[in-house]
Amino acid sequence: MTDDYIIKPHAQKRMTERSIPEKLIKESLRNPTKILYDTQNRLLIKKLYKKHGKERLLLIVGEMINNKLEIITVIDTSKVQKYL
């Protein structure tokens, strides 16, 4: 994907609330499990990973603006089958 990204304030707040390290964001962008687009042409980047030995899914929602990914929000869920 890209190393050129901006984490918007809302996404930063969610990362703090959900204890999502930026290292995981970078890994997800470099090696995503799946990339989709929604009806507004926003990117939905999905990354399957393990936390405390359990499978989790990180969802990153963003938009490409001037060749830079603007991360709007991030979601961390244990409901892997539902969202993957």
Give a structural overview:
With 84 residues, the protein is of the alpha+beta class. It has one domain (5-83): Nuclear Transport Factor 2, Chain: A, CATH 3.10.450. The protein contains 3 helices and 5 strands; from the N terminus they run βααββββα. It has helices at 9-17, 22-30, 80-83; strands spanning 5-7, 34-37, 43-51, 54-65, 68-77. The chain has a 5-stranded mixed β-sheet with strand order 1-5-4-3-2. Strand 4 (54-65) and strand 5 form a beta hairpin. The model has no long low-confidence stretch (mean pLDDT 93).
Number of helices in the DSSP assignment: 3
CATH C-level label = Alpha Beta
User: Structural class, from helix and strand content?
Assistant: alpha+beta
C-alpha termini separation: 18 Å
Mean pLDDT over all positions: 93
Give the strand tally.
5
Q: What percent strand?
A: over 45%
Helix and strand string, N-terminal first? EHHEEEEH
User: Shape from CA axes?
Assistant: globular
Q: Helical percent range?
A: 25-40%
**Can you tell me the residue ranges where pLDDT is under 50 for at least 5 consecutive residues?**
none
Strand order of the largest sheet: 1-5-4-3-2
User: How many structural units, i.e. domains?
Assistant: 1
Question: Can you tell me the CATH topology?
Answer: Nuclear Transport Factor 2, Chain: A
Largest beta sheet, briefly? 5 strands, mixed
Based on CA atoms alone, the radius of gyration comes out at 12 Å
CATH architecture, by name, is Roll
